[in-house]
Amino acid sequence: MDVASPAGRYAEIERRIQAACDRAGRSRASVRLVGASKRQPLEALAAAYACGLRSFGENRVQEAVAKAPLLPPDIEWHLLGPLQSNKVRKAVALFHVVHAIDRPAIAFELDQEAARQGRRLSGLIEVNLGAEESKHGFAVDDLAADLEVLAPLAVLEHLRIGGLMAIPPPGASAEDSRPHFRRLARLRDALAERPEWRARDFAGELSMGMSDDFEVAIEEGATHVRIGSALFGERQS
């Protein structure tokens, strides 16, 4: 199979995911592949869908809103980028999973809007692992010192917080991401021990790992990997 073709790229990603799961003693079913389709043409998404991909992630609400009506209705849409308050209504109407809940206020807005629309969403709390000003999310050191700040999110009725999401600081190799992924997993474990989260059957999901480091992420416990260029090819400018 031509690894440069859509089918070839998809098969190669699946092979690598399976190999990483085997190394970690995990089942393939424990990892969800999310195609990070930001600035990818519809043809690329349709080709990945034809290969079997059903979860697609967009960074911007308006791009997903434009694409979704032109693609099959059984796609599960994931919002990967930050969300502004003025986009909450449209986000709730379309997305199934919001990966970048970076502040309590946006979680409350999503929950309230989901109630108005009669929907239930899944959400992941974004953690800023490297204290990078260019990235959003709860500061990892603040959370490590006091997880109580997240307690109000445990009781939301229409937005189910299932775990954590992060993008590690840039590194020279995939191995440079490992300690950051490991720290996120430890934070998830600490959160899962808190009574307010145990009472809600906290799923303990970890959205971490992209094209350059998803295998390491799986070895460290990722439940969602967000893969763009390795799956679709380079993005359009």
CATH fold annotation: TIM Barrel
Briefly note the structural class of the backbone: alpha/beta
**Major beta-sheet overview:** 9 strands, parallel
How many individual helices? Answer: 10
Which band does the percent of strand residues land in? 15-25%
Approximately how much helix is present in the residues? 25-40%
Our Rg estimate from Cα atoms comes to 17 Å
CATH architecture: Alpha-Beta Barrel
Give the C-level CATH assignment. Alpha Beta
Question: How many domains make up the coordinates?
Answer: 1
Along the chain, the helix and strand elements come as: HEHEHEHEHEEHEHHEHEH
CATH superfamily: Alanine racemase
Mean pLDDT reading: 94
Low-confidence stretches: none
Q: What is the 3D form?
A: globular
Overview of this protein structure:
The protein is α/β, with parallel strands linked by helices and 237 residues long. It has a single domain, classed as TIM Barrel (Alpha-Beta Barrel). Helix content is 39%, strand content 18%. It has 10 helices and 9 strands. The chain has helices at residues 6-24, 42-51, 61-67, 88-94, 104-117, 140-145, 178-192, 195-198, 214-219, 229-232, and strands at residues 32-36, 55-58, 76-79, 97-101, 121-128, 138-139, 159-165, 205-207, 224-227. Strands 1, 2, 3, 4, 5, 6, 7, 8 and 9 form a 9-stranded parallel β-sheet that branches. Helix 4 (88-94) links the parallel strand 3 (76-79) and strand 4. The longest helix has 19 residues, at 6-24. The protein starts with 5 loop residues before the first helix and ends in a 5-residue tail after the last helix.
